[in-house]
Write a structure and sequence with these properties.
Blueprint (H helix, E strand, L loop, with lengths): L2 E6 L3 H12 L4 E7 L2 H10 L4 E5 L7 H11 L4 E6 L4 H10 L3 E4 L4 H12 L4 E2 L5 H10 L12 H11 L4 H8 L3 H15 L4 H10 L7
Parallel strand pairs: 1-2, 1-3, 3-4, 4-5, 5-6
Length: 215
Amino acid sequence: MAVNIILADDHKLFRQGLLSILNDELGFIVVAEADNGREVVKLARKLEADVIVMDIAMPELNGIEATRQIIHESPRTKIIALSMHSDRHFVTGMLKAGAKGYLLKDCAGDELILAVNEVLLDRYYISKDISTSVFDDYVVKLVGEENESDELTGREKEVLQLIAEGKSTQEIGDILFISVKTVEAHRVKIKTKLNLNSIPELTKYAIREGLTSLE
């Protein structure tokens, strides 16, 4: 039976490389591509994908939040994170969101194929170039290390990412289908919870917590 795969990465050339690797593997079919987190969430709702290869740093909705939303709605979908970052924070963030795999972007094509096959067997796959202690810590603690961003709700994290990406209050409302008044209420709550008041402070925090990379 064919394995249906969705690719989510905002760099078209990189996506094309992944597409070529995966479609060359017998039984693998890339059924859709997305260049931002919000789009991949929509595609996951529409298509019955077995695996999603997910970049972490994407506009509008980062890979961690996109993964959390997809797994909440479709827990059978296997998600493999793809990132340039091997930091503990990013790895545990994706695992906590529900990802089954984590690969670095400079991995070989063979490792990508191996990761897809492993997660299809409901096993975790972490890139060989990432310290095993990172994954061990996650397994032992189940949800990894706590951090300040856990104080924010999923919607507040979405708003914070869009603020950091320079979106206006009206633009945020249009993207999230909420009123300007609701956006402002979220802004106040975010600033209060994080004890941060300026846009530069909020942006710096969002980058540090992996909510956006502004690449």
